Amino acid sequence: METDKRSADLCQIETAPATGRMRRPGALYVPMRIGQELRSRGVRVVVRRLVEALRRRSVGGRPIATPFAPDAVLHLRPGELVRVKTLQEIRATLDGKGKNRGLVFTPEMIKHCGKEYRVFKRLDLMFDEYHKSQRRVRDTVLLENVFCTGAGLGCDRSCFLYWREVWLRRVDNSSNGGELANAAAIPPAQH
Q1: Buried-most residue among 47, 109, 146, 189 (CB within 10 A)?
Q2: Residue 123's Cα: distance from chain center in Å?
Q3: CA-CA distance, 149 to 156, in Å (whole number)?
Q4: Are 23 and 134 in contact (CB under 8 A)?
C-alpha cells in the first residue's frame, strides 16, 4: 500500500527511524547494510549518501534543530499522573517539521492537550517495523488509554502514541485526591 508524504508524517510509527539511535547487531552490520543498499538502490545513490554522511561529520555533525527546553527530562515512572501541556507550549518544543528530536507530534495528539493521564510505561526500546531493527528512545513515555485512532490515515491498528517528557507536566497526586480529571483515562478492568 502506498502512502503519500503528508500521511506518512502523521504516523509516529512511520517516522520511527528519526526518533533515536539504532542498535546495530555486531561488527558485520555496516558491510551487510552497504551490500543491501548497493543491491537495492545502486552505486550512485550509495556513494551520494556516504559523501553526505562524511560531509555532515566533517562540519561537526547535524545541527540540533529542536529548541532547548529546560524541563525536558522528568524521569517519569509508570503510575505517575501527568498533564499534557497546551498546544502552544508543545509547539515551542518542535522544529520546523513538527518534530522533537525526530519524533513527530501528530494532529491526533492535539485533542489530548490540557488533559491528565497516568503514565503506562517508559519507552526505552522500540522495534522499527520498516527497517526491521530496534531503536533506543530517550525521555519518552506511553500514557494509559491514549491510542492513535488513525483519523485521516485509514488505519485501525490503535497504536500507542509516543509522548516526549517535554510535552508533559507532572501533576501532584495530593492536589486532586489522586483521581483523574479525564474520563478517557479509565483504569483497566479487574479480571
Answers
A1: 146
A2: 9
A3: 6
A4: yes
* Cell digits of residue 190: 479487574
Q: What whole-number distance in Å separates Cα of residue 147 and Cα of residue 160?
A: 4
Tell whether pTM > 0.85.
Answer: no
What is the grid cell recorded at 157? 491498528
pLDDT in tens, 59-79: 555 544 555 555 578 889 999
* Cell numbers representing residue 16 in the block: 520511527
Q: Where are the alpha helices (DSSP H) in the chain?
A: 5-8, 29-41, 43-58, 87-91
Grid cell of 185 as nine digits: 483515562
Helix axes 43-58, 29-41, angle to 10 degrees: 130
